[in-house]
Design brief:
Elements: E1 4-9, E2 24-26, E3 31-33, E4 37-46, E5 51-59, E6 72-79, E7 85-90, E8 95-107, E9 110-121, E10 131-143, E11 149-161, E12 165-171, E13 174-179, E14 182-190, E15 197-206, E16 211-217, E17 220-225, E18 230-235, E19 241-247, E20 253-258, E21 263-268, E22 272-279, E23 284-292, E24 297-302, E25 314-322, E26 327-333, H1 336-352, H2 356-362, E27 380-382, H3 383-386, H4 394-402, H5 414-425
Parallel strand pairs: 1-27
Antiparallel strand pairs: 1-26, 2-3, 4-5, 5-6, 6-7, 8-9, 9-10, 10-11, 12-13, 13-14, 14-15, 16-17, 17-18, 18-19, 20-21, 21-22, 22-23, 24-25, 25-26
Helix pairs in contact: 1-2, 1-4
């Protein structure tokens, strides 16, 4: 049944960084240019320190005919006010950062924030990375001459792994990484007296092919396999990983997020939105939502743009960010009957508006073969399309209410839908 409304909108944004930075210096008698190309790859924010962590790839240009230099990967701390560079760590040669996250380690009454990085080491003749590392950094504050706060990165602990660290997240105070086909769980331990840290591996589970997405939620992990599956894992009380359910359809997920302990939302490389619900009895994930978003969603973040009123039937649950620069919100419809009635409304509107049938076809999911699948979209409703009801003419409203047959007649008064859609507009 339809569980979500999808609403798209554009939001004025200040770019955190461009895809390339050009630095130039000029002298009095001659002009000299130096180009340094820096490509931001991953970003994370630590609110307790008010700083961003930015993983970058830098490639310096060379003269024509000169062999290209290998790109160098680095990790930077940026001030969250003016984005000034506070500290920087340069990776080893032929090492690239693939993923970043933060971890807060609590001991007694004290909390310490760490930045966790996954890397791989590339060798020219290798087709698949054979080695990588898990790096954990602490950021120590220090006072500068201007009395402003600054930070210095310090490598607290590291662990070598056999393969590429494709993904990283935290769960139950531990670090989970995806290394090739395996999910590995690490515990960061700190000595209270010396403040020295070390990483201890506590569990490993082979999932499938390439674990490219990991999301932690309470004691559970959502795993996205680039080739085959979406899986839901649980971290048991003895810190072991076990599989709760899987969907083995070749969906090629790009990004994932847990709505709660049983529900998952995902986006794949054919621009579809998907949702899954855990079937505990059969130990599988049932796909209950399939919808063509027509944009590459690369990140889901729990939250909303505007908080709903108390008692509202529409609850914003996720923000999503697309490669086109678009930001959208996923809104949950808790009332099952309301979701069914809105589905009827969207069907009748599609039969009345001139472009309605094209809209239905446009939202039909795409398969991995880059063709439309046979089934129509389900589990999601298009908030943009539904809000057109607010500007429909009286003649169109009458046709929408009646439908094309008696079973299609709307079961709710039209003014109730209009009021609900006005509430929807207030949420973005």
């Amino acid at each position: 049944m339809p569980r979500n409304l999808n609403r798209l909108f554009y939001w004025p944004m200040i770019p955190l960084s461009s895809s390339a930075e050009s630095e130039m210096w000029a002298r009095c008698t001659s002009v000299r240019f130096r180009l340094v190309w820096t490509l931001p790859k991953k970003i994370v924010y630590e609110p307790s320190l008010k700083i961003f962590g930015l993983a970058c790839m830098r490639r310096e240009p060379v003269r024509v005919g000169t062999p290209e230099l290998s790109p160098r990967s680095s990790f930077r701390l940026l001030d969250d006010t003016d984005f000034s560079n506070l500290s920087q760590y340069n990776c080893d040669a032929e090492e690239e950062i693939t993923c970043v996250t933060t971890l807060t380690l609590k001991q007694d009454q004290e909390s310490t924030a760490f930045f966790c990085l996954g890397t791989y080491k590339f060798v020219g003749d290798e087709t698949t990375p054979a080695n990588g590392r898990l790096l954990v950094f602490s950021a120590h504050s220090r006072k500068t001459e201007s009395w402003s706060q600054n930070f210095e990165l310090s490598l607290a602990a590291s662990a070598d792994v056999r393969g590429c660290v494709y993904s990283i997240t935290t769960v139950k105070g531990m670090i989970a990484i995806g290394v090739n086909s395996a999910v590995m769980l690490y515990q960061l331990q700190m000595d209270e007296e010396s403040r020295q840290c070390r990483l201890h591996i506590v569990s490993t589970l082979n999932v499938n092919y390439y674990v490219t997405s990991l999301v932690g939620y309470e004691n559970r992990l959502v795993v996205g396999d680039r080739i085959t599956s979406v899986s839901l894992l649980e971290v048991s009380d003895d810190r072991k990983l076990r599989t709760l359910g899987r969907d083995l359809t070749p969906l090629s997920p790009v990004s994932l997020q847990a709505l709660n302990g049983k529900h998952i939302i995902a986006a794949n490389d054919t621009l579809n939105l998907l949702s899954f619900t855990l079937d505990e009895g059969n130990r599988k994930l049932d796909r209950d939502g399939f919808y063509q978003q027509s944009d590459m969603i690369n990140k889901f973040v729990p939250g909303c743009v505007a908080a709903p009123d108390a008692g509202s039937k529409l609850e914003p649950v996720q923000l999503f960010f697309a490669s086109s620069g678009r930001i959208g919100v996923i809104i949950d419809i808790a009332d099952r009957q309301l979701g069914l009635d809105l589905t009827d409304l969207q069907r009748n509107m599609a039969n009345v508006f001139e472009d309605g049938l094209k809209h239905t076809t446009f939202r039909t999911p795409q398969s991995t073969a880059r063709r439309r699948v046979i089934e129509t979209a389900y589990g999601f409703l298009d908030g943009d399309f539904l809000e057109r009801l607010l500007v429909a003419s009286h003649a169109q409203l009458a046709k929408i209410v009646e439908g094309t047959s008696d079973p299609e007649r709307l079961k709710r008064p039209i003014h109730e839908f209009q009021q609900l859609l006005k509430t929807l507009q207030a949420l973005h």
